[in-house]
Write a structure and sequence with these properties.
- It is built from 15 helices and eleven strands.
- It is an alpha/beta fold and about 500 residues long.
- The protein folds into two domains: about 260 residues, Type I PLP-dependent aspartate aminotransferase-like (Major domain) (Aspartate Aminotransferase, domain 2, 3-Layer(aba) Sandwich), CATH 3.40.640.10; about 120 residues, Aspartate Aminotransferase, domain 1 (Alpha-Beta Complex).
- Helix 7 links the parallel strand 2 and strand 3.
- Helix 4 packs across helix 12, helix 5 packs across helix 12 and helix 14 packs across helix 15.
- About 45% of the residues are buried.
């Protein structure tokens, strides 16, 4: 017998001992990374990043590499060259926290590899996901007949909502349908509309007021104009917390108009809807439970890792009518239990709802409500402090947990100069490494922004934000007064 038999290259299974060793190694590196977040720069090193990325291009490997040799550059070189999105100082865009129990849930879902597209394939697991959706439904005060699904993010939730409204209100007459957004609505809506067959020339943009909220009277006039032109208005989007300024549209008033006009009213709550979990904050989102459909992003307001959104639809049967189908090889559809493939486009799917279910079961809703309430309080405190900084002009106070502002001074006597200074403010504060901030163009004005939403952002990070904004603003105004500031946005 040959004592040196060739290895069985087709055997890709690992022994329990090998799997445990690999798992322990990965968890140890991941936990060490998270433990160091407080010492990491809020934004990684982007020096010569294009050349660095070109250097990473390589052909597919023919042979394997030991795990440590892969983890070393991953954790030491590649991950650090990115936004530090899980860090306490990440105040840019709309933060997602990356809460640790959700990572464990992803590991369980991937390693057990159960299929949840059809209820009968994993009845108990699908029920857990259904429970998690019901919890979201109850926090948003939607009726018991509402149904929904977990998606990869808000964009796919938006797409499914538009497709559902289109099917119900337009049928085959898609070209006549018109859809309404505000000038501050998320850009993914127009993209989702296009994917759902609503061309760009049928998407109407409504102006906003001084608080960046949709003007309901303008919306009413646009609907009337389209009806008189022989078109068919069918859907309105309002926003529970815009990305640029955090504005909450007059949801209740838009719900009234939508009801009287017979339009489907969708609320984009990707950023802000989870504040509705907190009873004392619900007045900020008045009218949200009246929506026909609602986008939620657990990877924002529930602090989950990126890659999970959610959709709720008031009339669950309308969502099911859009998606329900069968085939000869599939089990017969059943009506008693939630069946994901009957409410969404995916047939092949893993177990995305385990993230939400496991994390909530571990922490409980009380702790989530406390964390969300804290984020709003931190934003209110930070906004009050920032408003006192000489040279800062507040453009949007926190309606939820985001505020926006710009720089002005006698030396910054043009809009171009103010925009350049505000851009430089965002850049210089981020370069200090304690907090990362980003801005947004709103009309002709460039605004600086602070969004407090990561579960790791506590009082110390808010204080660091105020301190760095104060000192960098003073530096920029000194440069401007001395004529040392270029209006291209870069200090000389």
């Amino acid at each position: 017998m040959n004592d040196h038999a060739m290895p069985d290259l087709a055997d890709l299974d690992l022994s329990p001992e090998d799997m445990l060793a690999l798992g322990n190694t990965v968890v140890a590196r991941s936990v060490a990374h998270l433990a160091d977040l407080n010492t990491m720069a809020s934004c990684g090193d982007y020096t010569d990043i294009e050349a660095f990325c070109r250097s990473l291009r390589e052909p597919a490997p023919e042979h394997g590499t030991p795990l440590d040799a892969l983890l070393d550059p991953l954790f030491d070189e590649w991950i650090p060259r990115s936004f530090t999105t899980p860090g306490p100082g990440y105040l840019a865009y709309i933060p997602g926290g990356g809460i640790f129990p959700a990572a464990l849930a992803d590991f369980i879902a991937s390693s057990t590899n159960r299929y949840t597209g059809v209820w009968r394939a994993a009845p108990a697991l699908v029920q857990l996901e259904s429970n998690a959706l019901d919890w979201l439904r109850d926090w948003m005060e939607f009726p018991s007949e509402a149904r929904g699904l977990f998606t990869t993010g808000g964009s796919m939730a938006m797409f499914n909502a538009i497709a559902c409204a289109r099917e119900l209100h337009l049928g085959n007459e898609i070209r006549s349908g018109t859809l309404y957004v505000s000038s501050q609505s998320h850009h993914s809506i127009a993209k989702a509309a296009r994917l759902a067959g609503i061309a760009h020339d049928r998407v109407r943009t409504i102006d906003v007021d001084a608080e960046f909220r949709m003007r309901v009277h303008d919306l009413e006039r646009a609907i009337a104009s389209d009806r008189s032109a022989g078109l068919k208005p069918f859907m309105v989007f309002s926003t529970a917390g815009t990305t640029n300024t955090g504005a909450v549209d007059p949801i209740d008033d838009i719900a009234d108009l939508s009801a009287s006009e017979g339009l489907w009213h969708h609320v984009d709550g990707a950023y802000g809807a989870f504040f509705h979990m907190v009873p004392e904050l619900r007045p900020l989102l008045r009218g949200l439970p009246r929506a026909d459909s609602l986008t939620l992003d657990p990877h924002k307001g529930m602090f989950m890792p990126y890659g999970i959104g959610a959709l709720l639809v008031r009339d669950g049967e309308a969502l099911r009518a859009l998606h329900s189908t069968t085939a000869g090889y599939l089990p017969k559809n059943q009506d008693e239990f939630y069946d994901p493939a009957q409410y969404g486009p995916d047939l092949s799917r893993g177990f995305p709802g385990l993230r939400v279910w496991l994390t909530l079961k571990l922490f409980g809703a009380v702790r989530y409500r406390a964390a969300l309430a804290e984020k709003r309080e931190l934003a209110l405190w930070a906004a009050e402090q920032v408003a006192r900084i000489p040279g800062i002009v507040m453009d949007a106070l926190p309606q939820l947990s985001l505020f926006a502002f710009h720089l002005e001074s006698p030396a910054l006597d043009t809009l171009e100069a103010q925009n350049a200074a505000t851009r430089a403010l965002m850049t210089r504060v981020t370069q200090r490494g304690r907090v990362m901030m980003t801005g947004a163009a709103v009309g002709e004005r460039y605004l600086g922004r602070v969004c407090v939403l990561s579960f790791r952002t506590r009082r110390a990070a808010a204080e660091a934000c105020v301190e760095d904004l104060t000192s960098v603003t003073a530096e920029l105004l000194t440069d401007a007064d001395a004529g040392r500031f270029a209006t291209t946005g870069s200090p000389l």
